[in-house]
Amino acid sequence: MQLSSKQKKATISIVLLLVIAAISYYISERKVVLPTMTVQEKKARFISLIVPAVDHVYQDLMSQYEDVKSTIDSGKNNSEIEKLKTEYKASTDRELLMALKPHPKSIAIAQAAMESSWATSRFFLEANNIFGVWSFDENEPRIAALKKRGDKTIWVREYDSIEQSVYDYYRTLARGNAFKEFRKATMKTDDPHVLVTKLDRYSEKGSVYGKELSAIIKFNHFDDYDNDDMITAEEAEADIETTEVEGDME
What we know:
Layout: H1 5-30, H2 39-73, H3 79-87, H4 93-100, H5 105-115, H6 122-127, E1 142-149, E2 152-157, H7 162-175, H8 180-186, H9 192-195, H10 207-220, H11 233-243
Antiparallel strand pairs: 1-2
Helix pairs in contact: 2-5, 2-7, 2-11, 5-10
């Protein structure tokens, strides 16, 4: 049976309304509104969301680093290592190892806390973007910042999961020319308070940024996570209770 012109228009209108409704529902679902939380509850939620992801990514990257280092130390070279050099923009074995060695978890956790406002920022809630990583590729998933720089829209990357965001953050520090001194320092020390002084180019705050990260690590005992054995959730909660200062998230 052939539809009349009026029926066709009505059908198209209904389809468009359904599409608009579906899009509106999707957008509303992504805009998560958090309940009011105490400082302690906010930190506990942050730790439960972020720490397991950082730990898993760190262990994965450290395993890769140790495998590649073992191969290089044995005097061998293979196509996989050459591919990694291209991927990480490394011209020598040492530069590759500098790129592959993951920096301490405490730094990643502290930066996650600062950049995502303890996992409450819009970028985190709507895009799983923990570290405020910008997007310059219009073909990749991303969301626009609410504020512009002059007449320019700022875009940040959208991730499928928290772990994906953590992987991309480590990759950013492993490849970016701005973080070359930071990578060099990771080969000399694992002290997070020394290493954060080399992250002045991560933020417009400059050298103040490293000082703030160091303060967050100390205040919240995030360096406990740098031990070989992951501290338990109970131990983490105990740390939160003993360091909580109402209204002060450090």
